[in-house]
Amino acid sequence: MISLPPLPKNPVLIARGAVAVMLFVTAFLLCFLVAGATRTGATYADVYVVRLAEDGILVDAGYYGICARSESDQYTNSSLRCAPVYNATLALGDYMSSSMSSDILDLAYSFSNDVIHPGMLLTGLVFVSVTFLCNGYGIAAAIAHGPGASGSRAVRRQAVAEAVAVLGTAAAVVGTAIWGMGVGWAHAAARALARTLADATGSAVTAAVGRRADGMGWAAFAFMLLADAALVFAARAERPAERPVSAGGETASLASDATVVGMKYEAEA
């Protein structure tokens, strides 16, 4: 029979290993959202926050990109064109003006640039990266030093590890809060636009929420929450005992406690 290697019994390593996996998945999802609607490949072009439609033209607005295509070619993508948000009006202007006015393109630009605040996405990605690096240091420290390390060097290393753990946990919490607000705001803005645009324009222009980007955003937020919980557990498990017991320390502690209790009873008497 094939014998599998034993699993690590250190709960800190298990927790930090789970954090590393969850942060990697989170960073992967956030990078996909950054690249969404910036390239003509179907993998990226279909990652948009909201889709606008008017007179047979579809315009998809992502966090950092905008795509335009003919509604009749939405499955073949033969007419698909994509550009970064900052250059969308120039890159897609000629294509849009040949079919209709550029009002829908201006609306997509305003939505991506001014409404959904794409800076929150990049900020969340930066904090996830910082947390990943700090967590990696914690894994390396736990493997290299082990629980039985002693001496002045071990004390200094423990102090550095605790400081890095605090930094990583703080970065994780702040990043989760920022991206939670970002994905919640983008979701609410897209749904509000989808509900009100058709009524405001007499159904001349319609909007639909991008389900793929919405799902990726909420999945990343869920992984960040799980990573935060695992980091808190790891940080608590790594804390040294508040009352370290050395050789004979337990006896001395008990004797000291007995002395205090005796003095208390003598005072009461």
Tell me what you see in this structure:
- The chain has 269 residues and is an alpha+beta fold.
- The chain has one domain.
- Helices cover 65% and strands 9% of the residues.
- The protein is built from 9 helices and 5 strands.
- Strands 4-3-2-1-5 form a 5-stranded antiparallel β-sheet.
- A hairpin with a 3-residue loop joins β2 and β3.
- α6 runs antiparallel to α7 and α7 runs antiparallel to α8.
Give keywords.
elongated, 9 helices, 5-stranded antiparallel β-sheet, 269 residues, 9% strand, alpha+beta, disordered C terminus
Number of strands: 5
How many separate domains?
Answer: 1
- Our Rg estimate from Cα atoms comes to 28 Å
The run of helices and strands is HHEEEEHHHHHEHH
Secondary-structure class? alpha+beta
Largest sheet properties: 5 strands, antiparallel
Lateral strand order in the biggest sheet: 4-3-2-1-5
Please render the helix and strand layout as text:
Elements: H1 11-35, H2 42-45, E1 50-54, E2 57-61, E3 65-70, E4 81-84, H3 88-91, H4 93-97, H5 103-115, H6 119-145, H7 152-200, E5 206-209, H8 211-238, H9 249-268
Antiparallel strand pairs: 1-2, 1-5, 2-3, 3-4
